[in-house]
Design a protein that fits this description.
Elements (H helix, E strand, L loop, with lengths): L5 E6 L5 H19 L3 E5 L3 H8 L5 H8 L3 E4 L17 H11 L3 E7 L12 H4 L4 E7 L9 E6 L2 E6 L5 H17 L3 E6 L5 H14 L6 E6 H10 L8
Parallel strand pairs: 1-2, 1-3, 8-9
Antiparallel strand pairs: 4-5, 6-7
Length: 242
């Protein structure tokens, strides 16, 4: 491999995942041929295919291959046939482990209205006539996904606990991603939390306020997540980074 070549791992996934991944590979092949894109495409065995073969959604050999890739593209993950498996054996575990492997902290989820497709929106026509373009900047390293999970027998039967966990580094990485995106968009960030009831959200809010000092050109406001959900539905045209 030359110094300029990049290796892209492809995990087809489950359900319609292989169909989606196949189209993505076509796009990569197209740019290889037309624009000289210097990439090596490597298909990796994971998710349902790996479970069916060896019972492990991300076998050690696949994880080692993924670690040598510059990027990993994953198709749709999960299928009903695996729902009875314990969490650590389900296809979704692949995604969680790869996030840890690559140190992925933030997920960008743009939501916008494509002209001509208004009739497919679940919102009333008068709410979307101005269009909307919202970017959800979501932390995927902290929260309940990152904290301890446990279950036990209690006095009222089975009990379970999922601990929501955050640290300042995780919050800062996501906050900086949001502020950077806001600079390219409207210059506004709306930070969502439940600081009225959760200690983890108090930590979140305080750290976001601290990070905001490095972005004086970006307007920051705070909103409880349930209130923000209502705002997005009532006034979707308000362009925000969430």
């Amino acid at each position: 491999m030359t110094s300029k070549m990049r290796r892209v791992g492809i995990i087809p996934g489950d359900g319609i995942g292989p169909q989606l991944a196949a189209q993505a590979v076509k796009v990569l092949r197209y740019f290889q041929q037309t624009a000289g894109l210097d990439v090596e495409i490597l298909e990796l065995e994971a998710c349902g295919a790996a479970i069916d073969r060896c019972g492990d959604p991300l076998p050690p050999a696949t994880k080692a291959q993924a670690a040598m890739c510059d990027a990993v593209l994953i198709g749709n993950i999960g299928a009903p046939k695996y729902s009875a498996l314990p969490p650590e054996k389900r296809p979704e575990r692949t995604l969680m482990e790869l996030r840890q492997l690559f140190g992925v902290c933030t997920n960008l989820r743009p939501v916008f209205l494509v002209p001509g497709l208004e009739e497919f929106s679940p919102l009333r026509p008068e709410l979307i006539e101005k269009g909307f373009r919202v970017l959800v900047v979501r932390d995927i390293r902290g929260g309940m996904l990152a904290g301890p999970h446990d279950s036990w027998d209690g006095m009222h039967g089975r009990e379970a606990c999922d601990t929501e966990y955050y640290n300042e580094e995780t919050v800062e990485l996501t906050a900086r991603a949001a502020f950077a995106e806001a600079r390219r968009r409207t210059g506004r960030v709306c930070s969502l939390d439940k600081a009225n009831v959760l200690a983890s959200s108090v930590l979140w809010r305080n750290k976001v306020i601290e990070v905001a000092k490095d972005y004086p050109d970006v307007e920051l406001r705070h909103c409880y997540i349930d209130t923000a959900s209502m705002e997005v539905i009532r006034q979707p045209w308000r362009s925000m980074s969430l």
